[in-house]
Write a structure and sequence with these properties.
By secondary structure, the protein is α/β, with parallel strands linked by helices. Helix content is 45%, strand content 11%. Bound molecules: nicotinamide-adenine-dinucleotide (NAD). Nicotinamide-adenine-dinucleotide (NAD) binds next to loops.
Length: 459
Amino acid sequence: MENPIAFNRLAENNVFRKGDVFVLFGELFGRGYATGLLDEARRVGMEIVGITVGRRDENNALRPLNAEELSAAEGRLGGKIINIPLMAGFDLDAPAGGPTATDLLANMTLESWQDDRLDWDYLEQCRNIATERFTNSLKQVMAVLDGMIADGRNVFFAHTMAGGIPKAKVFLVIANRIYKGRGARHMSSQALLDSDMGKLILQNFDEVSAITFRHLIDFSTAIRQRIEASGGQVRYTAYGYHGTAVLIDGSYRWQTYTNYTQGYAKMRLEGIAQEAWEAGIKATVYNCPEIRTNSSDVFTGIELPLIPLLLALKKENGGQWAEYQWQACQQLLADGFTMKDVFQKITDMQANEVMRPFYDFSAWPMANSQAQSDLTIGTSNEITQMHRDSKVMISDHLSALVVEATGQLIFGASSEPSGPVQWLNHDIVARRLNASHLQWEPPAPSIAQATKDTQVEVA
Ligand SMILES: NC(=O)c1ccc[n+]([C@@H]2O[C@H](COP(=O)([O-])OP(=O)(O)OC[C@H]3O[C@@H](n4cnc5c(N)ncnc54)[C@H](O)[C@@H]3O)[C@@H](O)[C@H]2O)c1
């Protein structure tokens, strides 16, 4: 991608309807991006089908969900789960009796990891075993799914898989230092990439976050062809990340969270959608804004570009509802702090000389630097401390809004997708939210009163 391609329509669904099938390719967590898309699928009465990544038993063997887990997961999803484990990645696969990649990493120490070498031929065997396991299971999943979709139905495949961090203690310590460490605890993300450990992890990210999308497209070919031959339509979507344009100094400007080590896998994901698109398959990666979820909480500071969404709500002609969002966020701050203070911190960070090199789209994903990590993580910590309760954050409130908006945008866009890779920037997210809440009225007298009583400060 030479430039980010902004998605800029408030499109409405005119393909998917009651009885069509929505397939979630990944598990559902309460705060995750997929919840927004699922809300839309449910709204039009689609049948929901999910998968599971499975669970590991005490010997690391992959097993399906047990009855209790399955019923809880189906309850959360509001649909049927095909209970055949689809854990991706090769971190825990190995030839019988041999060590797994995670075991090999576990032999490394904090002193040795930068010089420790891995046996790439052996790891290739592990990777092939994992691919065979995954694709064999996927074949079975698709056979079950095939029986669940009648001719003439439309099908929406939503890929949500991302991950691949191996559970080796030494790596978890390093990851913590890269994503959360400042001062003496800072760790260079480039040092990780230069090591064999880092190269292994990048391969695993590729497997989980990118190649699973290709497997999904490939192994659903028979379903796609049957559905299309019977007059139905099939769509594939995936969530990407490749920075976001947010309001900086009054105009929308591309920026990114750094260091996003998973960025190489996300670019590969974009490439998979491009190839599929060229083959006539409607597969689109939607590059989404930074939000806080189970998966992204590891990245301290990822929430900083999210907070200017409040500015975008105003700029995109937000009415009473947008005003209320400011108020709701203000109320999460401890006494003595205002949204103006929060925005001052973010503006200072954005304008700092240290951040300048990181606004280069073509250089993405850049390695972190000591000064950039200190500034980003420091700003994040300072804003956290401005909150009344560090467990109820402005970024939680705004993340939920982004999930809602992206669900509507992606679902609407999928009737007539415009291309293989699109960016959902803050402008379109804000426009979607404002348009969806035009008829909104304050929920309770007490809050209405609070809205009246307090001047909303616009930074
Ligand atoms: N959170 C963000 O800021 C952000 C921004 C842009 C894009 N995204 C993307 O959105 C998608 C959903 O992520 P989310 O942030 O909502 O978090 P999430 O934790 O809700 O979702 C992560 C998904 O990855 C799956 N997964 C994790 N490890 C897996 C493995 N080894 N094998 C198979 N599946 C695995 C989980 O089952 C889950 O469906 C991801 O593709 C993510 O990269 C997130």
